[in-house]
Structure formats: C-alpha cells, structure tokens
C-alpha cells in the first residue's frame, strides 16, 4: 500500500530528527528516567493507599512516572515539534510535495505513540530490574490498552494545542505551563491522598489524573482481572476528541508570523 | 500540450482592504526563464503563492501547467518545484537525508546523488543542514525543488541576503536549470539578476505590471536616454558647449560632464566636431546605453 509505505518513509526520518535533537532527548527520555530514580530513592519505602489497598511507593511511582513519560512524548514533544516545524516553514514545504498531507500527521502521531509506549515499557523494566517492583500479571492487557488509549488521546490534545501557539519560541513554555500544574495535582509527583479534597476534585476534570489512576490500577499487584478502568479511559478519549475537533477546525500548514 | 507553462489574466488578490495584486496578466512560455521584477511589497510573493496553489485569488483566471492551481490535484504538485522565500529545512537531517526524504514523496524522482552534484553540494553531503552556510542552504532548497524532476520551478527571491560569491554560485545553478529544459519563474528585486538570467522580464510595482519584455527591449523602451560622459577640458564651462547640448548636460565635481540624449549619434557628432575644431582630446569619453536599472527606477518610482 502506497500510503503505508509513505508513512514509514516519513516516520523513519521523523525518528532520526527526534533522536538528533538534544532537547527532545533530554526532556522526553532523560527526565522521566531521572525522576523515577529520584522519587523511588527518596520516597520508595513509604506506602500509599490506591483503590483501598496499601502499596509500596516504588510500585506507585513506576506507573505514575510512566504517565509522565507518556505525556511528554505524546503531548509535549508532539506539540513543540509541530509548532516549530510549522513556524520554520517545514510543514508548508512538506505540503508542496505530492504526498498526501495526512501522511505527515499520521506519521508524527505514530512516532509519538511509539515513543510513549517505549518509555512506559522502559520505565516498567527499570522499576523491575533496579527497584524490584513486581511486574503486572493478569493486568498486562490493562497496561497495554491504557498506554495506547492514553497516547492517542494526548496526541490529539497536542494537535489541538499546537493550533493556539503562535511562535516556535513560545511552544515549550506554553506546553509546560499547561502541563506542570496538572502533573502536580494529579498524583504524578506525590500521591493524591496528600492533596486537599477540592484540588483533587479540580484535577478529576482533567485527563492527567485519569491516565495516572488507570495506569496505577493496571500496574498494582492487588488489581484483579484485566485492569482496564473504563471510566478513566472515557475521560481521556473525551479530551482526545475535543483536541481532535479543534485540530480539524484550526490546523494550519503555513507559518503564523508575517503574511 | 500548450506552449504556455503559465497563463494569468486579470489576477486580483487583496488582504483586508489592501489590494496586493490589482489585475495582472502574465504569460510564461515553456522552457524559458521568466523574471518577475519589483521592489519589496509590490505583490511578487502574493502572485507566486497563488501560482503555487497556496493561496486563493479574489478574481482572474490562472492556469499553471494546464490546470487551475487552487483546484489542482496532488499529481500536479509532482510537476512543480518551489523554493519559497521564508523557509528553513529540518536542521537535524544531513543534506543527503533531507533530499532522500523529499525524493520519497515523488513518483519519479531524480537520482539523489546526481541532484546533489548539480547544485554543487557533493562535499557537504553528510553535513547537517542546520550547519550549512546561507548560500549552501539556498542551494539545498533548489536541490529539493529539483529532486521531484518537475517541469516548472518557482524561485522566490533566491539570492536575497547573499554575499556576492554566493549570488554568483546561485546564478550558475539557475542557469543550469535552463539547460535541463525546465521552465523557471524567478522573482527578484535585483536588476542585475534579471538582466543576467532572464529570457523575459515583467516589472511589477504596487500590484500592477508596468512593463514587460526581454531585458534588452525593456531597457530601450520608455524613451530612457543614452548617456554620453566626458571630462570638460580645462577652462571650458558648460556654456561653451555647442548649441543644443548644454541644456542636457549635468556636471559633477567641476569637470565630469554627463550628457543625456535621445539621438546619441547626432549628439556625438556635434560634440566631437566641436572638440576637433578646438583640439580638445575629451579624455574619458564614453557612451552608456540605458540599463534595465534606469528603466526600473523610472517605472517603480513612487508617485
């Protein structure tokens, strides 16, 4: 199939570009790994209550930092790279070629999802090998489904957000400004039970908390069954659809600056 | 197939209340280098973006390679190449990788190595595009425009901001497009660039075409005068010159005279007869035909 061949052609080069960009490497790959080490080293021996069970903080931080990795790959990296390339005129230049334009977007989303999935896998393996955190058993489908649904949803949100950012310079600060507060109030850095109730309530309207909760449920050894939390997934999909609708309405290939 | 690569009639485009292009007509023949000359803000880029199918016109008929660019199918894109004015490449890829990436989009691309050779980047093949000099980046832009093996290439101010050496190199590349049989649509605000490269020139000012033709015919039209320059002999003033000439003479630095006339043969005869009678040697006597630059400045002068 020609479209599929083009997507792989494009994704191959997108991956090269990602890997050769030191900022992408650091913020998307190094930061989550570093945070996993720091948080488990500092708080690993305490316990936290999740879904009514007490679990070790090392078991808690593996899925939550995996959520951080997923968000920075699917949402942060995607938004920043799309805005930067749009403003540099790279997207417009791609569009001057006879390849269908959706190839470029699908390739970028595919790459972001693949990176997100690899990061989740890598963080789980580090948790297991370095900190002796138990690997999921019956809930493996839950980990896989949650990761994929989360990655696609956050990609769609990133596509939507990219249409509001006007310059390459403002892409990283705007993205971080939106995501950092949510990370803090959604259990990524410290457990939700430490939050005042109203703040926990505010966070429950945003997708980050639902990604963290569904991943920790799929990951915790006490969870019975396949570990899929349908309610959390629906929240993420809902936000993803919103992002996608915005992107479909507002997406532009041309640089915003100048005329 | 039509003789014409581009045909434009009554093209208009406005942004808000600004009329960027106010009804222009253009015809570009296959295989020629056509230059669109005009000052900044005259409507060159607006026109090019319409011809490339990136922006929509308000009125007029536009045909590029036989189709309306705004409704052109994807396959049409494979037949045009473009070097936009504001454009950066993916800085993380090497020259060869960037070209291979673009070549992959086209049904019948040119060989990558050959295209790199053509624009003279063989030595930089493995360099990241972000580390190329301005001139080298522009040549890579041209290579990317060429790699799909298009019939028609748009170059929007390809040498703006170049040092003289990089300009000469870019000109060589553009001249080589002609030998490949490509049609080239070039915009520029440099007269020497148009004079050097173009088969035909159209001059645009404030959204209208004010003149068109070959660089030579353009330079001769509009009654631009020929200039005869010489140094006034010692002790001679403008008033001493023979009748009829004095009125058209301008003197700079006391003795450098410039005579602007429409009948250069007659004026030269009068001037030299007068000088022979008085045994003046008229050092530095020279005749300059009107340049495209004179005509250009005259045509694009602000009203």
Can you characterise this structure?
The complex is a heterodimer of chains A (259) and B (303). Chain A has 259 residues and is mainly alpha-helical. Chain A is 73% helix and 3% strand. A two-stranded antiparallel sheet of chain A has the order 1-2. The mean pLDDT of chain A is 91. Chain B has 303 residues and is of the alpha/beta class. Helices cover 31% and strands 27% of the residues of chain B. Chain B contains ten helices and 13 strands. Chain B has helices at 44-51, 74-77, 95-103, 112-118, 134-147, 164-179, 191-197, 215-220, 264-277, 292-300, and strands spanning 4-15, 18-29, 33-37, 59-64, 80-83, 152-156, 183-188, 200-205, 208-213, 226-231, 249-252, 256-261, 286-288. In chain B, the strands form three sheets. Chain B has a six-stranded mixed sheet, with helices on both faces. The model of chain B has no long low-confidence stretch (mean pLDDT 86). The interface between A and B is medium-sized, with 23 and 28 residues.
C-alpha-based Rg of chain A, rounded: 19 Å
Structural class of chain A: mainly alpha
Mean pLDDT of chain B: 86
- Rounded to an integer, what's the Rg of chain B over CA atoms? 24 Å
Parts with pLDDT < 50 across at least 5 consecutive residues of chain A: none
User: Could you report the average pLDDT of chain A, rounded to the nearest whole number?
Assistant: 91
Helix proportion of chain A: over 70%
Widest β-sheet, arrangement of strands of chain A = 1-2
Quickly count the helices of chain B. Answer: 10
Poorly predicted tracts of residues of chain B: none
> How many DSSP-defined strands of chain B?
13
**Structural shape of chain B:** elongated
Sheet with the most strands of chain A? Answer: 2 strands, antiparallel
Elements of chain A, N to C (H/E) = HHEEHHHHHHHH
- State the oligomer: heterodimer
Shape of chain A: globular
Q: What is the terminal-to-terminal distance of chain A?
A: 38 Å
Number of helices of chain A: 10
Helix/strand order of chain B, N-terminal first: EEEHEHEHHHEHEHEEHEEEHEH
